[in-house]
């Protein structure tokens, strides 16, 4: 046993040494196992890996190759923080990107502001990730207020009055719920809102859904992440809540390939938030990526993959602009430069007010599946909301 | 909010999930009662049962033969259990008895990680579902997914068969005897290690059955067995380790408490109500509702 | 007469204690042999070595001429060597009848049926019939000893090794057990090796005894012969046997 331990330690040390000798490391912290949304993490990882390959194929950065170090947060902030420390301490990465679960990103930023290596959140939406105005905190994702504004516009357009929110008890779920209640008040929308929360490790949501059914809402907001989203849909169908009551899913889970496999009968009619549709124009980089992705995985990239790719591109361009791997120089370059990512629009991270600090927000779409087995690229776009 | 209909629906939903919880816990308690070891990888046998069910329904038998798939999945997990006992568990029982607990914990925890990695490696982190062609049924005032009703009925049948086998067959007698005294059965001329093998197979097959039954309800993914591990051990504490009636009653109790707590107190703490019950039991009756205070050596 | 059970130069060491030191003995078919000796003399170790509970460090055990020293406990039991324990090993939550049934079914002859008749007659023989459906853990110590003996006799074995079958038992039940032993011995020519402190019973049952001291065999012979040997008297700290 002791012998084995020594071998293992020696092996790990060897890997560490060989890796840091000639490459520039970038950390990618994502959920790869439950209770995290492993499928979501996987998409980001695919995008980031292709991004690394593309940057290296084009000659790398500052005369060196980029190397990706992937860690699994399992959606646990403590795990994420430990991962960040290891990435910075052992792997000597120059930036850590990824981040799917808001709680993890928030936890990591508290440590990152001391350790100084910047973070770039690609799919975590809690306001505080950027609203705390930490020097190290960057993001390329729709934030809670934008997402909520999008569905408030949708609710207004449809004339809905009674809204049930079923949300997980995490920063993500609570953040979106509170923001919805706040915008209802500040916008004088006059909605009657029922708020139901659940533990994201639960599997049986029947008690919650029964309460919602007896409230008789016009719309159910499904603010779960990962498996609970699907379980809520199925169990809502069983008790007769779906398909009679419309349901809006708070992120783009339904664009994933497994959606119609899981919901052949109750997938139709669902609304969901998305950040990308093939109808939105791609940059030349985005087109090259989409091609590479399709070749490798035989399917079209979703937003998570695009944003995972974008993060690598942005960091590579930032390193070039900084002409250094020093974290402070990188932060300065990101704040002042204009970058290219997958959308056909310039990407910037100004020191702006509130949640928009260091935050580039892609447009938010509300997409509607109008028939069974519909390709998400052909689904209706019910609302397109851009931050004014 | 406190309508009679909602109360009735909550009660029905609690009992139905409770029986399935009981099925998950039964394997843990049964293996413990015979072998005096805890199988920490129980949830992974649930997971394997659910994957087998998915593969059989999606690729081999089709959705109409789901019931046959359930029987085959359960049998598959039983056979896997025999192999695991033979390869991993039996060697532990050749070591001195005082070391067994530690070895069993290490071996089954390693097995847990191994099986999860295998599942993630082979099938990826995504969820799957075998789907179900069963229609939604009304159970009193409560609409229920056909698959869930079927799971409930199968679970009850399995519990009944399990009880009858223990009560009325020769092998059941040998199993009950082994749970009382391992030395005793050996003295009587019974090969206790082969009893172990069958007991381990049956125990994990119960979890595999739960996995196969619940595959269309709670979906199929590498860590879906966590529910078995968590609920199973809660039930084992509530009902008493080694007690079979304890598992059934504690399962239903847990289902009801979670259901009513979520519906009438605060749904955010659904998973906490069970833990509160566990804590209360540990304080008031540490051996569980039906636990025995020990057995003859 | 043929040798039924034979121990050949058995050695067993526990840490620093030589619990069994070159122990040899041979019991003939149909013999009732007593094993006596002070506490800690290695009597129970001998029983455990012979019945497969412990594996001997060296030496051999033969049952009807075949070596059983490498066999597992259950295999030894199936070959017809039946033992009882000083502390009874019954199945506490099972009823008296279920205990008897388990013993029967575990070693039943191939065409043995379900044992109903044998259980019936054993309930009569042990006078435990009124308790047939009582859980074994609710029996008195004597009743347990009786039941354990009954379990051992459910399927006639060729050879019995009994460890303190009479300790802590009231005289009436002692007589029942003695009768059962003599009955099985007569009817099936069964061999017995009985470890006991009860010298009156040993004198009554066993024409020949083996004396053990400090892990070794100190003497063989009739109880009266060995009681006169100086080393035996010394081993019992100068006290006369009785």
Primary descriptors:
heterotrimer, A: 388 residues, alpha/beta, Rossmann fold, 2 domains, 7-stranded mixed β-sheet, 5-stranded parallel β-sheet, 13 helices, globular, disordered N terminus, B: 297 residues, mainly alpha, ABC transporter involved in vitamin B12 uptake, BtuC, two-stranded antiparallel sheet, 11 helices, 2 strands
Question: What does this protein structure show overall?
Answer:
The complex is a heterotrimer of chains A (388), B (297) and C (242). Helix content of chain A is 45%, strand content 16%. Chain A is an alpha/beta fold and 388 residues long. Chain A has 2 domains: 2-142 and 282-357, Response regulator (Rossmann fold); 145-274 and 365-385, Response regulator (Rossmann fold, 3-Layer(aba) Sandwich). In chain A, the strands form 2 sheets. A 7-stranded mixed sheet of chain A has the order 7-6-8-9-10-11-12, with helices on both faces. In chain A, strand 4, helix 5 (128-131) and strand 5 form a beta-alpha-beta unit. In chain A, helix 3 packs parallel to helix 4, helix 6 (144-158) crosses helix 7 and helix 12 (303-322) crosses helix 13 (327-336). The model of chain A is unreliable at 1-20 (pLDDT under 50). By secondary structure, chain B is mainly α. Chain B contains 11 helices and 2 strands, in the order ααααββααααααα. In chain B, a hairpin with a 2-residue loop joins strand 1 and strand 2 (142-144). In chain B, helix 2 (42-61) packs parallel to helix 4. The termini of chain B are far apart. Chain C has 2 domains: 1-80 and 158-242, P-loop containing nucleotide triphosphate hydrolases (Rossmann fold, 3-Layer(aba) Sandwich), CATH 3.40.50.300; 89-156, no CATH class. Helices cover 35% and strands 26% of the residues of chain C. Chain C has helices at residues 43-50, 73-78, 96-106, 116-125, 141-153, 171-188, 199-205, 223-228, 230-235, and strands spanning 3-14, 17-28, 32-36, 58-63, 66-67, 81-84, 159-163, 191-195, 208-213, 216-221. In chain C, the strands form 2 sheets. In chain C, strands 6-7-8-3-9-10 form a 6-stranded mixed sheet, sandwiched between helices. A 4-stranded antiparallel sheet of chain C has the order 2-1-4-5, covered by helices on one side. Chain C is globular, with a radius of gyration of 18 Å. The relative contact order of chain C is 0.18. The mean pLDDT of chain C is 87. The chains are: A alpha/beta (388), B mainly alpha (297), C alpha/beta (242). Chains in contact: A-B, B-C. Chain A binds chain B through residues 32-35, 38-39, 41-42, 169, 196-199, 201-204, 206-208, 210-211, 214, 227, 230-231, 234-235, 237-240, 256-258, 261-262, 264, and chain B through 1, 3, 5-6, 9-10, 13, 17, 116, 120, 124-129, 131, 136, 142-145, 148, 217-219, 221-224, 226-227, 230, 258-260, 262-263, 266-272.
């Amino acid at each position: 046993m002791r012998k084995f331990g020594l071998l293992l330690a020696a092996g790990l040390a060897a890997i560490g040494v060989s890796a840091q000798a000639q490459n520039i490391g970038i950390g990618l912290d994502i959920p790869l196992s439950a209770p995290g949304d492993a499928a979501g993490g996987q998409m980001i990882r695919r995008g980031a890996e292709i991004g690394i390959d593309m940057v290296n194929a084009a000659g790398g950065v500052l005369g060196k190759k980029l190397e990706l170090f992937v860690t699994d947060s399992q959606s646990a902030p403590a795990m994420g923080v430990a991962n960040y420390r290891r990435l910075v301490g052992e792997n000597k990465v120059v930036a850590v990107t990824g981040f799917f679960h808001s709680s993890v990103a928030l936890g990591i930023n508290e440590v990152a502001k001391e350790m100084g290596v910047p973070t770039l959140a690609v799919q975590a939406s809690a306001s505080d990730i950027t609203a705390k105005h930490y020097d190290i905190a960057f993001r390329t994702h729709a934030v809670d207020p934008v997402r909520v504004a999008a569905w408030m516009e949708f609710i207004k357009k449809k004339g809905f009055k009674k809204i049930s929110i079923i949300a997980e008890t995490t920063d993500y779920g609570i953040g979106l719920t509170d923001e919805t209640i706040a915008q209802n008040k500040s916008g004088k929308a006059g909605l009657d809102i029922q708020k139901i929360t659940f533990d994201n490790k639960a599997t049986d949501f029947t008690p919650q859904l029964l309460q919602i059914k007896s409230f008789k809402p016009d719309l159910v907001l499904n603010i779960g992440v990962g498996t609970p989203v699907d379980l809520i849909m199925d169990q809502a169908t069983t008790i007769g809540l779906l398909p009679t009551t419309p349901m809006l899913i708070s992120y783009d889970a339904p664009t994933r390939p497994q959606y119609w496999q899981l919901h052949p009968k109750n997938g139709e009619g669902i609304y969901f938030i998305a950040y990308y549709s093939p109808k939105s124009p791609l940059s030349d980089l985005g087109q090259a990526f989409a091609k590479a992705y399709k070749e490798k995985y035989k399917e079209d990239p979703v937003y998570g993959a695009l944003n995972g790719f974008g993060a690598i591109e942005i960091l590579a361009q930032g390193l070039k602009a900084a002409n250094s791997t020093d974290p402070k120089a990188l932060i300065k370059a990101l704040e002042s430069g204009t970058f290219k990512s997958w959308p056909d629009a310039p990407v910037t991270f100004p020191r702006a007010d509130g949640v928009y600090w260091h935050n580039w927000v892609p447009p938010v779409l509300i997409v509607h599946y109008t028939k069974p087995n519909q390709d998400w690229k052909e689904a209706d776009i019910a609302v397109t909301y851009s931050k004014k | 909010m406190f309508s009679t209909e909602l109360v009735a629906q909550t009660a029905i939903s609690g009992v139905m999930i409770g029986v399935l919880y009981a099925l998950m816990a039964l394997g843990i308690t049964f293996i413990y009662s015979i072998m005096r070891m805890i199988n920490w990888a129980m949830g992974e046998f649930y997971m394997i049962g659910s994957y087998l069910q998915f593969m059989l329904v999606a690729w081999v038998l089709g959705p109409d033969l789901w019931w046959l798939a359930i029987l085959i999945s359960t049998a598959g997990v039983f056979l896997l259990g025999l192999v695991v006992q033979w390869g991993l568990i039996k060697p532990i029982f050749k070591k001195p008895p005082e070391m067994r607990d530690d070895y069993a914990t290490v071996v089954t925890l390693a097995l847990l990680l191994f099986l999860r990695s295998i599942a993630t490696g082979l099938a990826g982190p995504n969820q799957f579902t075998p789907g179900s062609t069963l229609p939604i049924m009304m159970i009193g005032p409560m609409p229920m997914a056909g698959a869930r009703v079927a799971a409930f009925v199968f679970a009850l049948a399995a519990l009944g068969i399990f009880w009858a086998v223990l009560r009325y067959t020769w092998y059941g007698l040998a199993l009950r005897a082994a749970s009382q005294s391992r030395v005793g059965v050996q003295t009587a001329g019974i090969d206790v290690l082969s009893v172990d093998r069958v007991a381990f197979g049956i125990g994990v097959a119960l979890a595999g059955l739960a996995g196969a039954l619940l595959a269309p309800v709670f979906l199929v993914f590498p860590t879906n067995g966590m529910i078995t591990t968590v609920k199973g051990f809660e039930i084992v504490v509530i009902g008493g380790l080694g007690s079979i009636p304890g598992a059934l009653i504690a399962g239903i109790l847990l289902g009801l408490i979670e259901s009513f707590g979520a519906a009438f107190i605060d749904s955010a703490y659904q998973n906490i109500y069970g833990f509160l019950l566990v804590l209360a039991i540990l304080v008031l009756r540490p051996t569980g509702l039906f636990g025995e205070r020990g057995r003859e050596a | 007469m043929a040798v039924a059970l034979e121990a050949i130069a058995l050695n067993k060491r526990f840490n620093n204690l030589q619990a069994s030191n070159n122990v040899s003995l041979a019991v003939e078919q149909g013999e009732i042999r007593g094993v006596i000796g002070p506490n800690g003399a290695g009597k129970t170790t001998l029983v455990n070595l012979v019945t497969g509970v412990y594996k001997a460090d060296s030496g051999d055990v033969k049952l009807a001429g075949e070596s059983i020293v490498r066999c597992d406990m259950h295999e030894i039991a199936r070959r017809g060597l039946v033992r009882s324990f000083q502390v009874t090993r019954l199945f506490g939550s099972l009823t008296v009848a279920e205990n008897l049934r388990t013993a029967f079914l575990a070693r039943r002859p191939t065409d043995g049926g379900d044992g109903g008749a044998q259980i019936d007659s054993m309930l009569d023989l042990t006078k435990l019939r009124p308790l047939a459906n009582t859980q074994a853990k609710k029996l008195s110590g004597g009743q347990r000893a009786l039941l354990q003996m009954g379990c051992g006799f459910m399927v006639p074995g060729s050879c019995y090794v009994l460890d303190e079958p009479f300790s802590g038992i009231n005289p009436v039940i002692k007589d029942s057990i003695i009768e059962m032993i003599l009955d099985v011995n007569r009817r099936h020519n069964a061999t017995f090796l009985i470890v006991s402190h009860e010298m009156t019973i040993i004198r009554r049952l066993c024409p020949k005894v083996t004396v053990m001291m400090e892990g070794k065999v100190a003497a063989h012979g009739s109880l009266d012969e060995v009681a006169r040997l100086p080393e035996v008297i010394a081993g019992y700290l100068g006290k006369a046997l009785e």
